TrEMBL record:
Name under which the protein is recorded: IclR family transcriptional regulator
PANTHER family in UniProt: HELIX-TURN-HELIX TRANSCRIPTIONAL REGULATOR, ICLR FAMILY, HTH-TYPE TRANSCRIPTIONAL REPRESSOR ALLR
Highest classification ranks of the organism: Bacteria, Bacillati, Actinomycetota, Actinomycetes, Micrococcales
Keyword Transcription: yes
GO MF term set: DNA binding; DNA-binding transcription factor activity
IclR-ED domain segment(s): 70-246
InterPro entries per UniProt: GAF-like_dom_sf, HTH_MetabolicPath_Reg, Tscrpt_reg_IclR_C, Tscrpt_reg_IclR_N, WH-like_DNA-bd_sf, WH_DNA-bd_sf
Coiled coil: none
Domain HTH iclR-type as annotated: residue spans: 8-69
A single BP term in Gene Ontology: negative regulation of DNA-templated transcription
UniProt entry keywords in alphabetical sequence: DNA-binding, Transcription, Transcription regulation
Amino acid sequence: MANSASGDSVVDRVVRVIAAFPEGVTTLQLAEVAERASLPLSTAHRLVRQLSDHGLLDLGPGGTVRLGLRLWELVNRNSPTLALRQAAMPFMEDIQQVLNQNVNLAVLEGWEALFVERLSRRGSVTNRAQVAGRMPVHISSAGLALMAHQPRELQAEYLRHFEDPSGKVTSDVVRHLLAESARQGYAQLAGVVDPDTWGIAVPVMNGKRRAVAALGVVVPLAEVRLQALVPALQTAARGISRRLDE
């Protein structure tokens, strides 16, 4: 693949163009795409036009750019999370009906929890977990539940590279949280993302006793009932695991 004068390939540039859209933003001006992708305007325009020809982007009047429907189609058709979401959805719906709380499903992607599904309860606390959104492991109960049930080598690498941008959390604190989550079989964080919420998550395990996903709820601090929440989540997680093994 041909390289630019800066040494990056066409694939590198295409990925930067597609990744230029921040979470929650569906439309950008072409100049914004170029700036966010660190590309000359002429290069961004050429790539956007070519991607638009394939339906991966939509180039509209006045230089507006949107993610194309074809991109969504391809991602969802063959996404490795599709089977997970299909297996989990009936159990997530049961959890929401029984507990009447926000419910999330996440997988581990690098050092972050990537949320692949969520169900929100009308009138409940704000659910910051967005589908296709990410949260660092150490501020997410789902992230802790996932990392706490990974191989020791992966945990050690994560802790070795750990850095909290706020400077408030150390690797020793995270090590303790992971150990506690592994011992208890669930992770919990109170008032970290929002001061009035409590996140609780359990791992969805595969046959090798490794977490392939995390099932969690986000509840108001005043409504926390661990004795009811955790067993319900663990039962649902085991059901998802069985579905995945079928």
